[in-house]
Amino acid sequence: MYEYFQGQLVKITPTYIVVDVAHVGYLINVANPYAWSNLMNQEVKIYVHQVIREDAHSLYGFTDEAEKSLFLRLISVSGIGPKSALAIIAADDNTGLVHAIDSSDIKYLTKFPGVGKKTAMQMVLDLAGKFDARASAEMVKATAKDENLALTEAIEALQALGYKATELKKIQKKLEAEVDLTSEEYIKAALKLMMK
After folding, report:
1. Which residue ranges are recorded for the region named Domain III (predicted)?
2. Could you give the CA distance from residue 24 to residue 58 in angstroms, rounded to a whole number?
3. 78-100 pLDDT per residue, tens
4. Full domain range(s) for residue 11
5. 109 Cβ partners below 8 Å, 6+ apart?
6. Rg (CA), the chain
7. Do both 122 and 70 map to the same domain?
8. 53 and 62 Cβ atoms separated by less than 8 Å
C-alpha cells in the first residue's frame, strides 16, 4: 500500500491530477484538482489511498494526512464509495462535516452529492464520536490561545477520564466564563454542569 507520492505535478484535469515520480506518471483522483493549479510543474507531496477492485486499481489523493483519514472514515460507511467520499470532502470545510456527524444533523449531511437520508443516518451511526481526537485537539488549542492553562489541563484530564470532546464542547463556554479557578476546580465545575 502507498502512503504518499512525491514528484512533479504534470497534468490537471477536472477529476484527477498526474504526478510524475521517477519518470512514472501516476493518475490520482483528487477532491478538487484545480486547487493544485498553482503547483503545476513543481514538486508536490500527495498522500494517497489505493482502492483495488476486480476491474480497476485506483489512486485517491489528499493534501494532508487529516484529509486522508477523513476519506478513510467516510468510505468505511455502507453506501459511500471513494468517489462519493471525494465529493463530500470537496464540498465542505470538513469541520462542518465533523460537527454535523457528531450532532446528528441529517439535514446538513443530505446536502452532499449522493447522500440521501438513509446514508446520512448511517454516517451518524458509524462515525459519531469517532472524530473526538481531532475535536479535542482543536478545543485544547482554543483554550491554550486564551492562556488558561488550568482549563486546558482540566479538559485534558476529563478526556482521560473518558468524556467525549462533543460533551465537553457543550459546556466549554460556561467554563471559560469562570475565572481564576484551579484545574481541580474546573474539573468539579465541569462535572456539575454535565450532571444537570
Report:
1. 147-196
2. 15
3. 889 999 999 888 876 677 888 88
4. 4-62
5. 97, 100, 101, 115, 119, 120, 123, 124
6. 20
7. yes
8. no
